[in-house]
């Protein structure tokens, strides 16, 4: 009997850092969050998150513009990166790394942080950067393709900018995009233009301080079924045939 094999586990991870406001300043990691995901079922197997105290705590703001943001008081008693480096290494090394814009940001920051403490950085067996992947496959239908815009597009709520919440949101966004792309590839003629949003999506940014209007609380799991039901309702109005209903059920089962 042939034994079916699957790729190594995927680790979605995210960093929250300081933002340099002067030339020559460095990014300082303030929080690390990760979930290990089974590539066969896209289920979360393990999670880890920790605040991190930078060597110079004065680089952390006293206040945060977000209600649950990271402040100097929150990281004052947190472990240093060196204290949690072994745990982070164990989570990342040899696994497939996944995240939003991780190639240009998170991967670089991880290598810098390990270099600063004189230890070898973890190495991935592969990288899935959802920013590049979705920009190529999903297009600009969700706006600027930031995680906040993608989450608002699918009704997943407002991005919290906390590591563990963001990686879970990242996984849900990928599931939703995969469902749409699967249906489009199967019925391209019938579904052309069906997924475009009729309303503008506003997201919080440093420049305009706008907030996404679809501010529904995000919770882990459960949202894929709701989204698929919405897709089912939309397509039922357009087609109303049993074969299409079976296709939607099949796409849902693939991504549960």
UniProtKB/TrEMBL annotation:
Keywords for the protein's UniProt record, in alphabetical order: Exonuclease, Hydrolase, Magnesium, Metal-binding, Nuclease
Membrane-spanning segments: none
Coiled coil residues, start to end: none
Cofactor: Mg(2+)
Signal peptide start-end: none
Listed Gene3D superfamilies: Ribonuclease H-like superfamily/Ribonuclease H
Top-rank taxon, per record: Eukaryota
Pfam families: RNase_T
Domain (Exonuclease) ranges: 9-183
Keyword check for Heme: no
Entry-linked PANTHER family: DNA POLYMERASE III SUBUNIT EPSILON (PTHR30231), EXONUCLEASE DOMAIN-CONTAINING PROTEIN (PTHR30231:SF38)
Annotated protein name in UniProt: Exonuclease domain-containing protein
Organism annotation: Brassica campestris (Field mustard)
């Amino acid at each position: 009997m042939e034994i079916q094999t699957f790729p190594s586990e995927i680790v979605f991870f995210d960093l929250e850092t300081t933002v340099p406001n002067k030339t020559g300043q460095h990014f300082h990691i303030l929080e690390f969050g990760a979930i290990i995901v089974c590539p066969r079922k896209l289920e979360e197997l393990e999670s880890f998150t920790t605040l991190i105290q930078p060597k110079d705590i004065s680089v952390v703001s006293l206040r945060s513009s977000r209600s649950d943001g990271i402040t100097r008081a929150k990281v004052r008693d947190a472990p240093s990166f060196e204290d949690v480096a072994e745990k982070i290494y164990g989570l990342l090394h040899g696994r497939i790394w996944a995240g939003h814009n991780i190639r240009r940001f998170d991967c670089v920051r991880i290598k810098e942080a390990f270099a600063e403490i004189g230890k070898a950085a973890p190495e991935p067996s592969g990288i899935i950067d959802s920013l590049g992947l979705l920009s190529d496959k999903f297009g600009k239908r969700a706006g600027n393709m930031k995680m906040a815009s993608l989450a608002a597009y699918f009704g997943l709520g407002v991005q919290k900018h906390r590591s563990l919440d963001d990686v879970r949101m990242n996984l849900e966004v990928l599931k939703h995009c995969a469902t749409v792309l699967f249906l489009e590839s199967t019925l391209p003629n019938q579904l052309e233009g069906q997924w475009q949003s009729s309303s503008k999506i506003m997201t919080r940014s440093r420049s305009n301080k706008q907030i996404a209007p679809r501010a529904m609380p995000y919770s882990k799991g459960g949202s894929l079924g709701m989204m698929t039901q919405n897709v089912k309702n939309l397509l039922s109005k357009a087609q109303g045939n049993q074969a299409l209903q079976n296709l939607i059920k099949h796409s849902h089962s693939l991504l549960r």
